[in-house]
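Known limitations

Files may contain more than one protein. Parsers should not assume a single record per file. Below, a two-record file is shown to illustrate correct handling: read the sequence, read the token line, then continue until end of file.
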Amino acid sequence: MRKLYCVMNQLLVGRKDEMKMLKEYFHSERSEFIAVYGRRRVGKTYLIRKAAEDNFSFFVTGVHGASKSEQLINFAIALQKYSHSASLSIPKNWILAFYELSRYLETLPEGPKLIFIDELPWMDTAKSGFIPALENFWNSWAVLRNDVKLIVCGSATSWMINNLIRSRGGLHNRLTHHLILEPFSLAECEEYFRAFGFSYTRKQMVECYMVMGGIPFYMSMLDKSMSLVQNIDRLFFSKNAPLKDEFDDLYRALFKNALPHIEVVTALATKGKGLTRQEILNQTKLTDNGMFSVVLEELEHCGFIRQYEPLNSMGGKRLNSNTLFQLIDFYTLFYFNFIKSNRFHDEHFWMISLNTSLYHAWSGFAFERVCLAHLGQIKKKLGISGVQTRACSWRSAQSGQGAQIDMLIDRKDETINVCEMKYTHEPFEITKEYEEKLVNKLNVLAKEMGLRKSLMLTLITTYGVKPNLHSGIVQSEVVMDDLFEY
């Protein structure tokens, strides 16, 4: 069971599995090279510090946007602090920097030597020689011992994967462990809120998730003495809102050249179901080349977008023209729908947006994303946890039919759950018109796809389906409470 780990007033909540693993690595009988990565603001640094109880032999954090010489100065200052040297010696290059680190570590008494390099990607500036020096430090010194515990961390997930986990150079297969830290699930959010005295209902927790996506840093800024509506106005729309500029800070901290990444997510924000590669190119006017592929890959690795095959696509290992890219980061979706739309800088923009057409369009769409993020809980409720599945969408190829389905769970057992997701304030009532619409969707889907699988209509709602003459069309249900399961 994956748990969260968070602290407020020294109260610990969760991430117990991750804590246990890190502590085991720290006390193993061999040298360890551990990479921890995940989306910015997800709590990586805090987890590592708590697991190590801040008992580091050496700890340094890369400086965002700094030059090679500035990074070396920062490294030297940290080394002086831990070695208690009377003078500051600034190395000329990274080879010498890591050599000085090894010399210092050799003076320490027996026992685990915990080395924590935070925001490692920021230290790898252009033509700095940082990676070869790190390779040399590990391969020629650390790995020959049994007491070195090197922990590296970074929010630039794509950099961490390409340069460490999938390294083809001197660090190939050198990592002993890598750990991805994910945002909280709804169950973990509820544990957090209950532990820290919030009185939010589950529906309010879902709405908070639709805004913040279970990111611990954002949640830590909530004030339990205020309603969720008040908190959102305070954090995003007030005069000195602490998260007003989070969008630019987030993307520019993750990517060295963030402009194309921002252009891609801007394009995807206009199309909820996603865009093909060519459609993104058409909207952004970016060049179709290898760099564009890197941009898409980096956004996917960092959890901002996902790629998937529509049901009518054959898929396969290679990207095809039908592959869709979809924006899935909750905060980014909220930014484009509300923060960017607040042209008049209204400090109560969230309060006045409630129950507007803008709010209803966003909430329905964001709830779909909540369901997608909790596919495991949905499968558990449907009793198909052990069945191999893929989640996809479908849109009729015949424009006159106008039929589309937001989420299908395509199963290996010759069944497809056709999922309709409805975010409402009361039990959802199926009208005669909506029943006819559902029947049309199912018929068009079966006809166009020539399906030989059975179709099972599944409604995912906040408070369930209200029984009436038309509710019998529903074959299985998932409600909001089911999404809070571990």
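...continuing to the second record:
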Amino acid sequence: MDTEKKLIRQILTEKPAGQPVTVRGWVRTKRETKNLVFVQVNDGSCFSSIQVTFDKDAGLPAETDAALKKITTGASVVAQGILAESPASGQAVEVQGSAIALIGEAPPDSYPLQKKNHTMEFLRSIAHLRVRTNTFGAVARMRSRMAYAIHTFFQERGFQYVHTPIITTSDCEGAGEMFRVTTLDPERIAAEAWKAGREGRPLHPEGASFPDYADDFFGKPASLTVSGQLEAETYATGVSRVYTFGPTFRAENSNTTRHLAEFWMIEPEMAFFRLEDNMDIAEEFIKYLLKQALENCAEDMAFFDARIRPGLLDMLRKTADSDFARVTYTEAVAELEKAADRFTFKPYWGCDLQSEHEKFLTEEVYGGPVILTDYPKEIKAFYMKLNDDGKTVRAMDVLVPGLGEIIGGSEREENLDKLTARIRELGLRESDYWWYLDLRRFGSVPHSGFGLGFERLLLYITGMGNIRDVIPYPRAPKLADF
């Protein structure tokens, strides 16, 4: 690799002293006056482009003159020149160009990013090109920086990074909204079902399953994972503190601005952590990530604040500097019931809180981030630890202004008898969780964890309005084009 191939972000930080530089990237704009040609080049390494200026009166090489005539928005180029102070406002340096080569053309009659004001919906239809825009270049850099920050946070605190299975035979959430993984031929299965129906006979003998998963690849039904939590718990009970960071999948037929069929989850699990410890590290985690974005991505954050969501910077700074209020679900519902007429979904004890409830609590009742605890057991997963009242579980949700829920977690049930009873109560198959129950049979310990949806975090930090715009290639109902 040629280590002298500098990115534009590196060139822009250099002190101009007449040194030669080479700029590689894609043309954002080209404009001409009588004597000068100005080419704005961006390589995606930072928000800013660099201007390469050519003086036509200086006698340009024939190859450069020919290239300048053919260069249009979107074309890829390599330009050489001298780095100098810029006489124009808004930029500290520019390149006084001496040569430019056209690497790849972008014909103006067919290049879809010629104009500047495209709708988000249109840009989703060209997801392979939208990263070249200011908005999606900024989102891509923010996604990369936040992934780095997540690993840094956990690695600095003694966590081990663990890779949990993408293919699983257990349903962590118990909702059944999972994508099936199979090698069985669906056309053959459909033909057998049609034939049985025509002949008026059952699809399978009594007691047998249809289709027969004994013939499938894994010998039983398998799906894409909805969470790596259960497997992460096995490692937490061996190496104390772990975290996952990987793709998860939900076959939920939700066509909203907050749902994806494929998304990334961060899920730490900590042995010997009670709910209070879990809340402490979740709060520390969110504050750390926000400060990393504000301190290390200032240029992109200024763009999001100016063009995507005005007031974003102030909102994030306030959250990063706040003490998160800690409130029980019961206390929160009491506050919501006082303003019941304001909500589309009427609040009551036992309801699953909606976004409108969460935003009301953070923005109007408590005036900042809130951690809600002790939810009714009926609306939470089987693995959450029961409180002594027998009605609530030691769950927690972290809510932030401007978004609502950003983290969900709990203390896990470490008692074998109680966990077994809960599995049976919910009608889950105990045999599917034999290994999970073993954690309670052998050296069981109190432990806790939480999940943070990576795209949900990015929505909050960037101010983008649709979760499909903070992942490179969104997967949603009827949307998997790339």
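Parsers that stop after the first record will miss the second one. For reference, the second record is described as follows. The mean pLDDT is 94.
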